[in-house]
Specification:
Helix content: 55-70%
CATH superfamily of the largest domain: GntR ligand-binding domain-like
CATH architecture of the largest domain: Up-down Bundle
Strand content: under 5%
Shape: elongated
Number of domains: 2
Largest sheet: 2 strands, antiparallel
Number of strands: 2
Length: 237
């Protein structure tokens, strides 16, 4: 079992940098990760680099290949569908639980967060908009008073982050309206309605992701996206 790196150690620094790269598909999907160049780029030795890579593999953000090292994740469309199904189950439960446990003051703070998010211009960088979107869902999860739910959501967010970027374009106004709708149900202490509104919200996201995928992988690698100009890895023969 791999030890969790200390927050100020070389392995922790490598982990944070590599996680950001993996979440945004900065590596060509399916490509082998060359440890020596990565170690030079991150200014760490190969031991902490490998520790960080093992941790990322345990989180399914990179792939460990026995006897060969590590590789970047492929763009697995079936996996994306599975992850959104998991998100549906997890976040509807979070909405229900947060409604039952959150204080009025905590819901006031969540409302204020939505207000602040709306104030951010739609022309802001997509990464900033994605962070605001993820921030809403994480704050709601924390209102469940269940640290394990927050941990599961964090891992899920990391794995769908890149597709969330693709899904963010052109849908921000509806996202904010749906967030407000969930908070209103929480304020009314209607746990069932909060769960139903979250369900509709996640299903909209799933359908929009499906639409992006139907238009083809290429649309995910155009414009200002973090993986712009990367080629998709070819399937192994």
């Amino acid at each position: 079992m791999h030890q969790t790196p200390t927050t100020d150690g070389a392995a922790a620094r490598a982990y944070r940098a590599l996680k950001a790269m993996a979440m945004t598909f900065a590596f060509e999907p399916g490509a082998r990760l060359a440890e020596e160049p990565l170690a030079r780029e991150l200014k760490v030795s190969r031991t902490p680099l490998r520790e960080a890579l093992h941790r990322l593999a345990s989180e399914q953000l990179v792939v460990a290949i026995p006897g060969k090292g590590f590789a970047a994740r492929r763009l697995d469309l079936e996996e994306v569908v599975d992850l959104y199904e998991m998100r549906l189950a997890l976040e509807t439960f979070i909405a229900r639980t947060a409604t039952e446990r959150a204080t009025t003051e905590q819901l006031d703070a969540l409302d204020a967060y939505v207000d602040a998010s709306v104030a951010v211009q739609s022309t802001a960088p997509v990464e900033e908009l994605v962070a605001l979107d993820e921030g809403f869902h994480r704050r709601l999860a924390k209102l469940s008073s269940n640290a394990e739910l927050v941990r599961l959501l964090d891992n899920l967010h990391a794995r769908i982050h890149f597709f969330r970027w693709a899904d963010m374009q052109g849908r921000r106004d509806r996202t904010q309206a749906e967030h407000r709708s969930v908070v209103r149900a929480c304020r009314a202490r209607d746990a069932g309605e909060a769960a139903r509104r979250m369900q509709r919200h996640i299903l909209h996201r799933r359908d929009e992701i499906a639409d992006v995928l139907k238009r083809g992988h290429a649309s995910l690698f155009m414009g200002e996206g973090p993986a712009a100009r990367l080629d998709l890895a070819q399937p192994e023969a």
